[in-house]
């Protein structure tokens, strides 16, 4: 098998050097990076090209370690009309992601070693991104009996993150046992915090607007009370707890309190909860129907501030593809969820960078470094430096463009951003030393699969030599 070509990136600015909020991206000194095999092998100024180098002129671009999504729904096995591992990882690569954690609400559910190994293998074969399966906490997501957590952790997929996402682990005893179990191998429980009794039949955020529209409400307390309970269980067990898609100002206060107490808790926010509000539900357009629901303007403000304060650790997409027929119907009958991989970075630029809430260096932490740490992702670069794995993304921060159907690379098109003017563009995505996005275009399926095999084979050789 022939090795992947070397890449020389010329004149790129590193996000890690842009540590000031609100600073012009031009304030960092451009450097060159040479990628060879699956590594960054050189970093410096004025590196000389070698004859077979692919040269990327990166003037004006900003480099981040590859984005990592801790919360993606890839839908395979079982819902391949909505998304597959291949289509979902194409969307991921287009969005600048080099690794994604795949949620467990597939059919069959990812609750056995066999299913998680299958999902991981599909990701390896496609080559667009590293796929790390998330294991279900309870069998069949039924909330009644713990799944084979140990078997999934010890399987080839080495699962570290467990979640019943889509459903809440509501039984406090099961939650306690799950926390105790994952603690033995430093795993983490990612909770979808939604009290099912307080949200029966809920269709949108509960408040004046839900009364006005005549839709059943999803009260903030249904999220906040579960987070508060789980914080106490995490403290009691000494285990790691992660909160999925935080959506209310009250949840922020609970997490802030928990962190001040030293509880091992981390929290994520989605791009859509950082920009959209419940007012959009007035349209009865089901593209805006999502779980947890879009909240109030005050919540959006509190979530942005919580990101700036470090109370919220990461941005995760909750990419939730659904077919048209599940969205082009009455509000009550429509499915919850929106796609988000391709739009995540533009929304983060609009809501966090351009508003001066975070620096580029902090954005790299939010979208790459912290999610990798929380998920226990092996082989992820900790910096863009010689010797590090070559998972990186080059972003063009200048200008805006209209987000449209051609920007969506997955099988489903339930994006709330279609027709919106968004900043930033993913110019190049490099995974394990090969291009998955080249000059703004996704690299084709066969080329990526072959490059993935070459990188995998080379890694096999490296491991044998080291052993
Ligand atoms: N976010 C959603 O509205 N839907 C998710 C489930 C989930 O993340 O809770 C889905 O699987 O469709
Ligand atoms: Zn969820
Ligand atoms: Zn989800």
From TrEMBL:
InterPro entries: DHOase, DHOase/Allantoinase_Hydrolase, DHOase_cat, Dihydroorotase_CS, Metal-dep_hydrolase_composite, Metal_Hydrolase. It comes from the Bacteria. Binds 2 Zn(2+) ions per subunit. The active site is at 318. GO terms for biological process: 'de novo' UMP biosynthetic process; purine nucleobase catabolic process. Gene3D superfamilies: Metal-dependent hydrolases (3.20.20.140), Urease, subunit C, domain 1 (2.30.40.10). Zn(2+) 2 binds at residues 165, 192, 245. Pathway: Pyrimidine metabolism; UMP biosynthesis via de novo pathway; (S)-dihydroorotate from bicarbonate: step 3/3. Substrate binds at residues 73-75, 105, 291, 322, 336-337. Residues 62-248 form the Dihydroorotase catalytic domain. Its EC number is 3.5.2.3. Its cofactor is Zn(2+). It catalyses: (S)-dihydroorotate + H2O = N-carbamoyl-L-aspartate + H(+). One of its GO terms (molecular function) is dihydroorotase activity. Keywords: Hydrolase, Metal-binding, Pyrimidine biosynthesis, Zinc. Zn(2+) 1 binds at residues 71, 73, 165, 318. GO terms for cellular component: cytoplasm. Catalyzes the reversible cyclization of carbamoyl aspartate to dihydroorotate. Belongs to the metallo-dependent hydrolases superfamily. DHOase family. Class I DHOase subfamily. This is Dihydroorotase. It comes from Leucobacter luti. The lineage of its organism: Bacteria, Bacillati, Actinomycetota, Actinomycetes, Micrococcales.
